[in-house]
Structures are given as C-alpha cells and as structure tokens.
Amino acid sequence: MSKPRRPSGPPAQLTDRLFATERRPEDFRFDASVARVFPDMIRRSVPGYTTIIPMIEVITEQYAQAASNCYDLGCSLGASTLAMRHGIPYGDCTLTGVDNSSAMIERCEHYIALDDNPLPVSLRCEDILETELNNASVTTLNFTLQFVPPEKRTELLTRIAGATRPGGALILSEKIRFESVEEQEVQTRLHHEFKRANGYSDLEISQKRSAIEQVLIPETLAAHKQRLLSAGFDQVLVWYQCFNFVSMLAIRAD
User: Fold this and answer.
1) Is 75 annotated among the ligand-binding residues?
2) Containing domain of residue 228, as a range?
3) Residues 245, 177: contact at Cβ < 8 Å?
4) DSSP letter, residue 176
5) Where is each Methyltransferase domain found (predicted)?
6) Alpha carbon distances (Å) from 156 to 129, 145, 152, 161
7) Tens of pLDDT along 173-205?
8) What confidence score (pLDDT) does residue 111 get?
9) What was the pLDDT predicted at 2?
10) Alpha-carbon gap, residue 216 to 209, rounded angstroms
11) Is residue 76 a known part of a binding site?
C-alpha cells in the first residue's frame, strides 16, 4: 500500500522580471508566469501589502462567527486565505478560497497544504461572479474587485451583502483613483517612487502600467463607499490607506 504523497515544498519564488525587457504590448493576465513571481511582484508593487495581510487575520478574528462560512474571493496564492484561516477562532467554520486562474490555484494548494493550521480550506477554480455564497460571516476581496468589470461590481457586492450574517463583514482592498487631478498625479508619482525604491526600472513601471490599465479599473473611494451601502452593508470605513491603495471594512448591522 503506497504512502500518501507529502508536499515537496513551496513552489519556487522568483524575482519579478516580467517587464524588465521590451515586450509586445498585451493585457495583463494571471497566468503561470505571473503566478511564479507573484509574491515578489505584489510585495514590491502594492504599498502596505505586508501590513494588510496580517491585519486580515486580526479583522477575521473579530468578525468570524461560529458555524458560518468565510470566503476569500480572488484568493491568488492564498496569502489572505491563510490569514483568515489563522484568524477564524471556531472549528465549525468553513473557509473557501476562489480564483479563476488555475495557475494560481495550483500554487495556492501547496501553501495551504504546508500550513499547520487544522481548519479545512476548500479551493475552487471558478469565476467569483458565479460562486455560490451563503451564511457568511467574513468575506475578503483583497485587490480583486478592481479586476471585475465595473458594470458587474454592484451585483457581486449585493450578493455578498445578502449572504452575510448580521454582525458579519466584508474586507475590501482596492487601488483607487482620486477626484482631484492634482491629487491623482501626486499619489501616482509617489506610488511609482515606491516601485523604484523596490528595484523596478522605469521600463518595468511603464510596461506594467500599459499592460494593466485596461484590466485593472480603479474607482474613487466615494464610489466604493456608496456602492457598498447600496449593496446592503450598514457601515463602511477605511481602516488602511497608503498612497492610492486602501482597505475598507463593510459591516452588516447586528
């Protein structure tokens, strides 16, 4: 009788050099090449990411409820999934991570298997717009909604709010744009300086921006707040912001 196969170890994490040389213009995709360098890419590209992830654990602990479901929609490699896993204080909760990239899910499975927390995690490779949601206490959209077509965002958030228990919450992290042209220019410049400080060249910054600008569609903070309230949440607050990156907490009243 053969023994169960153990994970061989985490997938190799490479330095993000995807845009370091001239390349043919094409839209950004979460394919295998991105999955291989994603931990390095997001750490060097998103100000505050290394703060947001551990705080998702803290927030999850505060809002998770016994015998409920928790969801990480757009889980990528599972950083926020694992944070939620360690924050959930009830053994009878279920935790589901969803992503439409098979390359991301495949690598996420390795990280989940290597984690020593006993709470089961279910991973689904599917479109979050089609994911069935119910009896939720905590849902996370960590830099995910910005990749959903704008005309479909209200429907998704309304489904999340409708599936959320009283006292439950949604953690929503997003890149935003600003009403003021002047502020937008300042915040964009600071974000680019953050990338340069993390070793990205002007070519990398320019090519990544060109690849992602038709895929990642940011909105204003006011638009996000109004949509969340219209979707059915009762309170919306910003708990973190650095430059043009924010994380919000949308809460259902008890």
Assistant:
1) yes
2) 44-177+213-251
3) no
4) B
5) 72-168
6) 6, 9, 6, 9
7) 999 999 999 999 999 999 999 999 999 999 999
8) 95
9) 41
10) 10
11) yes
The answer to whether the annotation marks 127 as part of a ligand binding site is: yes
Confidence of residue 6 (pLDDT cuts 50, 70, 90): very low
Structure tokens that stand for 120 in this block: 């089961």
CA 24 to chain CA centroid, Å, is: 27
Would you say 36 is a known binding-site residue? no
The response to whether 142 counts as a known ligand-binding position is yes
- Establish if 8 belongs to a structural domain: no
Stretch 125-150: mean pLDDT: 97
- CATH classification at residue 218: 3.40.50.150
Domain presence at residue 83: yes
| Within a domain: 185 | no
DSSP-derived letter for residue 243 is T
Residue 234 marked in a binding site: no
Q: Per the structure block, which two tokens stand in for 239?
A: 């708990």
Nearest to 68 by CA among 152, 165, 154: 165
Contacts of residue 217, Cβ cutoff 8 Å, sequence gap at least 6: 146, 149, 150
Helix extents (H) in 120-240: 150-163, 181-197, 202-212, 221-231
